[in-house]
Amino acid sequence: SDASKFNLVISFLSPETLQEISDIIRKPPDFDKYEYLKSEILRRLADSPDKQLEKALSGLSLGTQRPSQLLRRMQELAHNRATEDTLRVRWLTLLPQDIRKFLKVLGDDLPLQKLAETADKLTEDNLHPMVMATAPRPTQSAQTPADPIHIELVELKH
After folding, report:
1. Which of 25, 36, 81, 89 is 20–30 Å from 114 (CA)?
2. Where exactly are the structural domains of the chain?
3. Taking all residues of the chain, what is their mean pLDDT, rounded to a whole number?
4. Alpha-carbon distance 97 to 100, whole Å?
5. Do residues 90 and 38 touch, judged by C-beta distance below 8 A?
6. Is residue 21 classed as helix, strand or coil in its secondary structure?
7. Each residue of 106-117: pLDDT tens digit?
8. What is the pTM of this model?
9. 48: three-class secondary structure by DSSP
10. DSSP 79-115
11. Which candidate, 84, 85, 77, places its Cα nearest to that of 57?
12. In this structure, what DSSP letter does residue 141 have?
């Protein structure tokens, strides 16, 4: 019965939750007590959709994955609770600054998936940086001594 379910739920609630719904416990509705209790607990204690989305996306970072992989993960976690613009802004903040600056030049009109593909190419190029090293050229005196005294000393040694 409705009253049995209502009482059973109350018996399993934490003290914090009981305090939050104490008004319902003191004066429950005449009908649909269980449904009312359930809906009020959810309304009062559940996170808003925006807060749920924030929790789902918090802690994400690019790490070793490609930008497109990060975007797909974010889309999966968002479960259609976020607009493309919301995901775009959040995703861009997780990319390296140099990549973000380049993508900003492309503008907001580019579809998010195309932006992710471009970011993949940019990070791919950055993953294999070109190393350029130079060595000092030997000085003239080290190659061939021009000093006649030095030449004589070398000849005497041999």
Report:
1. 81
2. 2-46, 50-127
3. 80
4. 5
5. no
6. coil
7. 777 888 899 999
8. 0.53
9. coil
10. TT-S-HHHHHHHHHHTS-HHHHHHHHHH-SSS-HHHH
11. 77
12. H
